[in-house]
Write a structure and sequence with these properties.
Elements (H helix, E strand, L loop, with lengths): L1 H62 L11 E6 L10 H14 L3 E2 L8 E18 L5 E3 L5 E3 L5 E17 L5 E12 L7 H12 L11 E3 L1
Helix pairs in contact: 2-3
């Protein structure tokens, strides 16, 4: 009986001896797993917080009010570009053409910038990009030399400048620096073309620049 007790005691001690390192190993494994789970949880929480912040920023930006496009039944004053901005055309011709185009869109044109709700600034830049052959009308003059004008018979051709004209139109609220709407249009025409006068070019470009109004386009309208 004593022998049996000793055998059972030895067996318990041996079992305990074997379980102890296993228990420590299990604890280490559980600790490692807990550490991994905690790290994954922190990463997930961080990602969630980052996403929430990003969504909040986007929501804040999207909620920011956009500048209101000028009402088409409002009052507006048309002005030529300030001196030194590269405006090559006659300010009067450009302003008249732009005012007519804005009037066709429903604006009420005022000549006094202090009483108009909006200010439109228009610029027409022109540059010679080549030459074109133009048929000279019967009896039409042609410059030959410095200041010498000679009539050419019908059926003859003469080289005339080919002009690239680009019009810019910007609308602002009176007293405000922000551009509420802008448009642009470009054409290349011979100065001898039937529609090549400064007034005709300015009129065609003004209408083309406003063709999408009140929608804002990033494209420059092309006019034949």
């Amino acid at each position: 009986m004593i022998l049996a007790f000793v055998v059972r005691l030895a067996a318990k001690i041996l079992a305990a001896t074997v379980r102890t390192p296993l228990a420590f190993a299990s604890l280490r494994c559980m600790s490692a797993k807990k550490s991994e789970i905690a790290m994954a949880a922190r990463k997930t929480l961080g990602a969630a917080i980052g996403t929430a912040l990003a969504l909040g920023a986007v929501s804040h930006l999207s909620a920011a009010p956009l500048p209101a496009v000028p009402s088409q039944n409002g009052t507006i004053c048309v002005e030529a570009a300030r001196p030194g901005t590269g405006d090559d055309a006659s300010p009067r011709a450009v302003v008249t053409a732009a005012a007519a185009a804005l009037g066709a869109r429903g604006f009420t044109i005022l000549n006094d910038p202090d009483h108009a709700a909006y200010i439109a600034e228009v610029t027409l830049r022109q540059e010679e990009v080549g030459t074109a052959r133009a048929k000279v009308r019967a009896g039409g003059p042609s410059v030959a030399g410095a200041g010498l004008s000679l009539p050419l018979p019908s059926g003859k051709y003469n080289l005339v400048p080919l002009m690239r004209s680009q019009l810019y139109l910007e609308i602002r609220k009176r007293g405000g620096p922000a551009v509420l709407w802008h448009g642009a249009a470009v054409t290349v025409r011979s100065v001898a073309a039937r529609d090549g006068s400064e007034e005709q070019v300015a009129s065609a470009l003004s209408l083309a620049a406003l063709q999408d109004y009140p929608n804002q386009s990033t494209q420059i309208a092309s006019v034949p």
